[in-house]
Amino acid sequence: MVPRIVEVYEDTPAQRAGLRAGDLLDRVHVAEDAAKFVAERGAPIVVKADGLAAGKGVVVAARLEEAHAAIDAMLASNRLGIHHNPTGARVVIEDHLSGEEASFIVMADGRNVLPLASAQDHKRLLDGDQGPNTGGMGAYSPAPVVTPAVHARIMREIIQPTVQGMADEGTPYTGFLYAGVMIDVAGNPRTLEFNCRLGDPEAQPMMLRLKSDLVELLLHATNGALERIDAEWDRRAALGVVLAAAGYPECPRKGDPISGLDAVPENCKIFHAGTALADGRPVTAGGRVLCLTALGETVRQAQRAAYAAVAGIHFDGMQYRKDIGNRALAVPRG
């Protein structure tokens, strides 16, 4: 089968409900036409895998060379290990949106919605938002970019129309609904993506801040009674730093011994992801290995506590960003 590159408008309940999303391009091309098409559009441009990619299927290409390399990686070599859809290997090409991205996650019970604490992820591998996209190298909650006014707009313009649209079409949705939202300098939110799950690593700082019983929230969702309960949150900020294996994201190395897990301070929690036991010792067993998460009176204090814990952990080839949370400290928002 000849790989195809697809740039189409998704026909989703969200878009039928009229919410604002990123502009998708509306032509279909076979693979050999991709280079010409991208060259015509120019950069920056966004290339997305049409399939499951463990959070690594999006490339925001600042240069045409990056866009061409992304197309090759997703369609030809499939170095990222994308699970393509049964219809064949495809990518979606999107116009680039400027702004600040935030994760807006809610619980839905079919019609009612309970918003959870806002969070902000760091997708790129390297400091300063450089390097390849990953599943997420760290996060903090709350996200200052989601002001009360922006929060109200996201609920009114994105979340509620989407949940209501699914219910109106006879497919009510119950579960976590994750909206990746781009917020421009004027505070206008636009939808980048939806996921039917809690985000990773957003869930780690969010769960550290959650004071309510998670099971009670889940039961209210499954019983269609979210309007009867509220989530209570710790007023403090939480921040998590992901420690990734050597070779991540393309080819993470497994089997490296991990030391220092017993020396983590009490004010920090370790969330295990890609770990295993070998001869009774913890070793790396996946791309994102650990997430060290801490609470603080401010984002800066949570950042200091999390990185103090990171300093005590070691495994060969360990990768982590040193600037998680800096975005929240840069510019105060009203």
Tell me the strand order in the biggest sheet.
Answer: 2-1-7-3-5
Give the number of DSSP strands: 20
- Ends apart, CA distance between termini: 53 Å
Beta-strand residue percentage: 25-35%
Shape: globular
**Helical region count?**
8
Give the proportion of residues in helices. Answer: 10-25%
- Rg measurement, Å: 20 Å
Verbal overview:
There is one protein chain. This protein is of the alpha+beta class and 334 residues long. It is 24% helix and 29% strand. It has a 5-stranded mixed sheet, covered by helices on one side. A 5-stranded antiparallel sheet has the order 10-13-16-20-17. A 4-stranded antiparallel sheet has the order 9-8-14-15, with helices on both faces. Strand 11 and strand 12 (130-133) form a beta hairpin. Helix 2 (34-41) packs antiparallel against helix 3. The longest helix is centred in the middle third of the chain and has 21 residues, at 148-168. It is globular and about 55 Å long. It starts with a strand and ends with a helix. 37% of the residues are buried.
